[in-house]
Amino acid sequence: MIIVDTSVWIDYFNGRKTPETNKLDRLLGVEPLAIGDLILTEVLQGFRSDADYQTAKELLTSLTIFEMLGINLAFKSADNYRSLRKYGITIRKTADVIIATFCIENQNSLLFSDKDFLPFVQHLGLFTVSTKI
């Protein structure tokens, strides 16, 4: 299962052509895609127009939606944050720690453009989705 991060959805809904949004276009309707409840919140809260909000909500709720945090993942997220700090890396957003940890623990790949996920790939085994054709 591929989870698509907020960073990609924002670019996608804003019509930005990036390697990640191009990959998302190729995957929609072809591969099983998912988002987390946290990603759903982050994406939907950014819409100003009610019509755009409704369109995005319909698209996003057609995907598999995971609940991303419970007690066990809260502890594991804190552990992962602390592990990266030992490498001298501080992740700026707690949401990114939760999303990366969820993907690592459930062996899901993550399609992202936010560089804050790279330390999770390099040090903690997060699977990423290649944007190469």
Write a brief structural summary:
By secondary structure, the protein is an alpha/beta fold. It is 54% helix and 11% strand. Strands 3-2-1-4-5 form a 5-stranded parallel beta sheet, with helices on both faces.
Give structural notes.
The model has no long low-confidence stretch (mean pLDDT 96). The radius of gyration is 15 Å and the shape is globular. The protein contains 7 helices and 5 strands; from the N terminus they run βααβααβααβαβ. A 5-stranded parallel β-sheet has the order 3-2-1-4-5, with helices on both faces. The two termini are 19 Å apart. Helix 5 packs across helix 6 (94-106). Helix 7 links the parallel strand 4 (109-111) and strand 5 (127-128). By secondary structure, it is of the alpha/beta class. The longest helix has 16 residues, at 71-86.
Descriptors for this entry?
five-stranded parallel beta sheet; alpha/beta
Q: What's the SSE blueprint?
A:
Elements: E1 2-4, H1 6-13, H2 19-27, E2 33-36, H3 37-44, H4 50-60, E3 64-66, H5 71-86, H6 94-106, E4 109-111, H7 118-124, E5 127-128
Parallel strand pairs: 1-2, 1-4, 2-3, 4-5
Helix pairs in contact: 5-6
Helix content bin: 40-55%
What ranges have pLDDT less than 50 throughout 5 or more consecutive residues?
Answer: none
Structural class: alpha/beta
Arithmetic mean of pLDDT: 96
- Got a strand count? 5
Oligomer: single chain
Q: How would you write the strand order of the largest sheet? A: 3-2-1-4-5
* Percentage beta strand: 5-15%
Main sheet: strands, sense, barrel: 5 strands, parallel
Question: What Rg, in angstroms, do the CA atoms define?
Answer: 15 Å
Shape, principal axes of CA atoms: globular
Task: Please work out how many helical segments DSSP would assign.
Answer: 7
Order of helices and strands: EHHEHHEHHEHE
Instruction: Give the terminus-to-terminus CA distance.
Output: 19 Å
